[in-house]
Amino acid sequence: MNWLSNNLDLVLELTIQHLRLAVIPIVLGFIISVPLGYVAYRYRLTRGILLTIAGLLYTIPSLALLIVLPAITGISVFSDLNLIIALTIYAVAIMARSVADALASVDPGVRQAATAMGYSSWRRFWTVEFPLAGPVMLAGLRVVAVSTIALVTVGILVGVESLGYLFTNGFQRRILLEVLTGVVMTMVLALVVDFLLARVGRLVMPWSRPQRASQRQVAAATAEAVL
Amino acid sequence: MSIEFRGVSKRFADGTLAVEDFSLVVPSRSITVLVGSSGCGKTTLLRMINRMVEPTAGSILIDDADISEESPVALRRRIGYVMQNSGLLPHRKVIDNVATVPLLNGVPKKQAQSAALTLLDTVGLDRSLADRYPSQLSGGQQQRVGVARGLAANPNILLMDEPFGAVDPIVRAELQTETLRLQRELDKTVVFVTHDIDEAFLLGDQVVILQKGGRIAQQGSPAEILAAPADDFVAEFVGADRGRRVLSIQQVDGVDILVDGDGRPAGRLGGSATGRRITETARIDETKAGARTASGAPAQGERAS
């Protein structure tokens, strides 16, 4: 316990740094995934290509990606930006499919009704299809958030500090508690962010709550997204 | 607001010819029902009126103006549309669903919402439902909201695509009666699509019976069609040759009872329980219709008249 009480400041600092490194790719990944997911959903031909590429991206080992990326971008291997770009790629790999599935989950009857009411296609997308795709997109985003928070720790291998520092440092110094603190704090961070996302989702999509059936659909879609 | 189809055809991208050379005039301020089995092109025809489907040949005119010259979005905002399964936006409260089109048209939110509340009264919904989401309503209530939404921009034309197909028979009967009341009160030009001939006869001032490819088998008032089915297809479709449509008179305890083709009592002939106040004309009409359409053996115990 001694180590922990002596290093609370360090743990806090690393946690904040960890959060910052995770949040940027989560947000960026989501923003990039919306147009990609839309194209994949809208055009049958691109769907297979886009989603296969996205799926393949996710299979690239993270350490390899961190080392290869600088060759393409010209950014230093050791910079935060390099890690953020890598994590954004992973986020897009999961999220693009999720957005495509989410848009496809919108009841075609509702889409037709909106058209019949006189929505222009732009307005229909942003005020009808996008919000209605929300529950399934949120399910995907929660997967992305947890996965990204876990992946941030890999950054320590190229010198980008996060809670991952506690793994390597604790391992080298043979302080089990330090390693455990790193693991637990990463998990806590993931759980907290996941919980917050779920809460925000319920807040901005109050209509998705009362319907048991739609929640089941979300659950199914989530399962599909995870698999 | 009359609507006219002039030689309209629709061939879908996959090659199916949904509608072939269809012409029809929908008179204003009345209900025209397009009725036919699935695949007869009735919904396609309806959706051509608000350009959800574009015809591949021919033209459609509203008050003699070709609708292909108007922007689809503007056209749709001045035509009410009510669909099966309500098509309400699940993420909007009832009140905002009703106000959809006025809001699209830029009416201030407050004003659109207060107008929407009035519309809830019009379609017989309690104002307390205004703040609910569609999923919190029953099927019948959702359809009423759908009708209110269709009326919100005060359109002259209302398109109804099997609006009551998915609700139970009791609620359906209620909604049908309401539709007739609304039509009387609001005087819209209504085009109504259904596969239910009873619904068509109940609601339609003009009934258009369609066969595959949007071919008109017969059009006219329900009475005209029932009195003189154009061909065997129509006769069979409206059931003129069987069942409930073949009414005959049977006397029970000195009272004239109407029985259907299967011998089941269908009603009493215009009289009271004790008396026999049968108006001669009604009696003749009924028996004439019965005589014309009866094809099989007379119902058991049918009274010769």
From TrEMBL, chain A:
Pfam families: BPD_transp_1. Residues 15-197 form the ABC transmembrane type-1 domain. The chain crosses the membrane at residues 20-41, 48-72, 149-168, 175-198. The keyword Transmembrane helix applies. It comes from the Bacteria. CDD domains: TM_PBP2. PROSITE patterns: ABC_TM1 (PS50928). Keywords: Membrane, Transmembrane, Transmembrane helix, Transport. InterPro entries: ABC_transp_perm/SBD (IPR051204), MetI-like (IPR000515), MetI-like_sf (IPR035906). Gene3D superfamilies: MetI-like (1.10.3720.10). One of its GO terms (biological process) is glycine betaine transport. It is found in: Cell membrane; Membrane. The keyword Transmembrane applies. One of its GO terms (cellular component) is plasma membrane. It is a multi-pass membrane protein. PANTHER family: GLYCINE BETAINE/L-PROLINE TRANSPORT SYSTEM PERMEASE PROTEIN PROW, OSMOPROTECTANT IMPORT PERMEASE PROTEIN OSMW. Belongs to the binding-protein-dependent transport system permease family. This is ABC transporter permease. It comes from Naasia lichenicola.
From TrEMBL, chain B:
The keyword Transport applies. Its EC number is 7.6.2.9. SUPFAM superfamilies: P-loop containing nucleoside triphosphate hydrolases. Keywords: ATP-binding, Nucleotide-binding, Transport. Residues 3-238 form the ABC transporter domain. It comes from the Bacteria. It is an enzyme of class 7 (translocase). PROSITE patterns: ABC_TRANSPORTER_1, ABC_TRANSPORTER_2. One of its GO terms (molecular function) is ATP binding. Residues 280-289 have a biased composition (Basic and acidic residues). Residues 280-305 are annotated as: Disordered. InterPro entries: AAA+_ATPase, ABC_transporter-like_ATP-bd, ABC_transporter-like_CS, P-loop_NTPase. Belongs to the ABC transporter superfamily. This is ABC-type quaternary amine transporter. It comes from Naasia lichenicola.
